[in-house]
Amino acid sequence: MKNEKNLNSNDIKQYIIFDLEEEEYAISIEEIESINRIQSITRVPKSPYYINGVINVRGDIIPVMSLRKKLDFYEDVFTNSTRIIIIKKQDASIAIIVDKVKEVIGLDSKNIESFQETNSKMGADFIKGVGKINNRIVTIINIGKLIENIEDELCNVMR
Question: Which stretches of 8-127 are DSSP H helices?
Fold first, then answer.
């Protein structure tokens, strides 16, 4: 019975693991609408420096954020592994560009530590926690914080 409870535990959540600048990051699968290959991005004049433009996904126009630029990493480098992850938050969607999507993992909450100090290049505001998977450490992104003001900034540009 004990094993049955552990298998059905609500403490295990699914995460998409992806690479950005040779480090591993994760986003809760609940926040992801789809993962797509890189496609043509239409520039939007006067948009914030980290917005590459917009894409058309099944008739919806979605802003595309360069996660590298937003986090003050190097410029985007598009390869065959580059992916666009569409994030759905309430009624809005945003796409983020990542270097490579690696895998889906189940992570128990007891294997996630809140962020205090890490070697990650990412600012602490965007980190939800640090997950331990075997001998790996994965930085879990707080999507809400990451995209907090983007909608307002884009509405100002589109006016």
Answer: 67-70
- Split into its structural domains, the chain has a count of 1
Question: CATH number of the domain that 44 lies in?
Answer: 2.40.50.180
Residue 122 DSSP code: S
Specify if 29 maps to a domain.
yes
Give CA–CA dist 96/63, Å, rounded: 9
- 84 neighbors 18 (Cβ within 8 angstroms): no
Domain enclosing residue 76, as ranges:
12-158
Give pLDDT tens digits for 46-99.
Answer: 888 899 999 999 888 999 999 888 888 888 889 999 999 999 877 778 999 999
How far apart are alpha carbons 63 and 41 in whole angstroms?
9
pLDDT in tens, 27-53: 999 999 999 999 999 998 888 889 999
The Cα 106–Cα 133 span in angstroms is 9
